[in-house]
Amino acid sequence: MNKILIIVATTIILNCNDKKLNIYDSQEYLTINEETLIKGENVYSRSCTHCHARGVAGARTMDDYNYWNNVASQGMQKVFTNVEKGYNGIYGIMPPKGNCLDCDADELKASIYYMLFQAQKNKPAN
User: Fold this and answer.
1) 109/85 Cα distance (integer angstroms)
2) Euclidean distance between CA atoms 91 and 35, whole angstroms
3) How far is CA 108 from CA 1, 11, 81, 118, in A?
4) What helix, strand, coil percent values describe the chain, rounded to 5?
5) If DSSP codes are grouped into helix, strand and coil, which group holds residue 49?
6) What angle is formed at CA 112 by the lines to CA 31 and CA 72, rounded to 5 degrees?
7) What is this structure's pTM?
8) How does pLDDT run across 83-110, given as a tens digit for each residue?
9) Is 19 exposed, middle or buried (0-12, 13-18, 19+ CB in 10 A)?
């Protein structure tokens, strides 16, 4: 019995720091400022829009809130890694940094926040 409690407690403790917080619920997203959204919009307009405006190569457009909420539920670390390194999976392909090869980490994060912000405008009414 004690062994089981130790295993359960250890599992809970080890997984606490790994909790994936939906980006929409994160403090950083909830307190996003206009400067970040403008920076994100600039990156989106320069690079992301080529695919995400029309759904090229499987890219999702901003009108599918449920899809983007699912993406946001993966947590910022996973989403950022997919953007930074690129994505090749069942939903399509995305080149590293969405082809914004001169973008730094702050610009990439801003573009993620901007896209999620735009998708959130299409959240279905409850």
Assistant:
1) 13
2) 31
3) 48, 33, 10, 15
4) 65, 5, 30
5) helix
6) 80
7) 0.82
8) 999 999 887 899 999 999 999 999 999 9
9) exposed
